Amino acid sequence: MATQTKPILHGYFRSSCSWRVRIAFALKGIEFDQVPVNLIKDGGQQLTDQYKALNSMQQVPAVQIDGITLSQSLAVIQYIEETRPGPRLLPADPKKRAQVRMISDLIASGIQPVQNLYVLQKIGAEKLQWAQHFIQRGFEALEPILKETASKYCVGDEISMADICLVPQVYNAERFKVDVDQFPTIKRLNQTLMKVEAFKGSPLCTSLGH
């Protein structure tokens, strides 16, 4: 849509929520600008008044698009699904669409929030064990669901929002030394997705100089 200005993604390179949005933009072929928000530097750049004006929760990402600002990754993904052409991120079939949303919410609401940076900073010395516990618990729930829904990808044979959520969470699991071999379906899907160009920009490859 040539008349539109490029979206602006305010995010942190290691943020799985920011990574979801980058994947979705890549899958849709959407060019965008990035503004780095370093969650560590200067006590956390997300805590500034300037950033709070963009995202009152003082989290990443915040996305400026089409004259509005959106601050939740799944809301961003569903917005671009509804307003931009390109590969579908939600299946046409309502049952499969519900399964995609279920898997996405399980990860985005049930696993990631309890092992994000803000929570781990509050936990302190036990942060590794805390993150491992909640990722392990979440994957134990996710694995049997994916056994039922997956084919080539999380739900059937089309890449969806569920896959967009899965890959960053597997990265987090490996970062926190969770043994992903326990979860063969999750491991297989992640390996398949990491061969897709849009998923290859891991946090370590998109560090924006941090």
UniProtKB/TrEMBL annotation:
Cofactor entry: glutathione
Pfam families assigned to the protein according to its UniProt record, in alphabetical order: GST_C, GST_N_2
An annotated Gene Ontology molecular function: maleylacetoacetate isomerase activity
Domain GST N-terminal: residue ranges: 5-88
A single Gene Ontology CC term: mitochondrion
Reactions that this protein is recorded to catalyse: RX + glutathione = an S-substituted glutathione + a halide anion + H(+); 4-maleylacetoacetate = 4-fumarylacetoacetate
NCBIfam families from the UniProt entry: maiA
Protein name per its UniProtKB record: Maleylacetoacetate isomerase
Organism field: Oncorhynchus kisutch (Coho salmon)
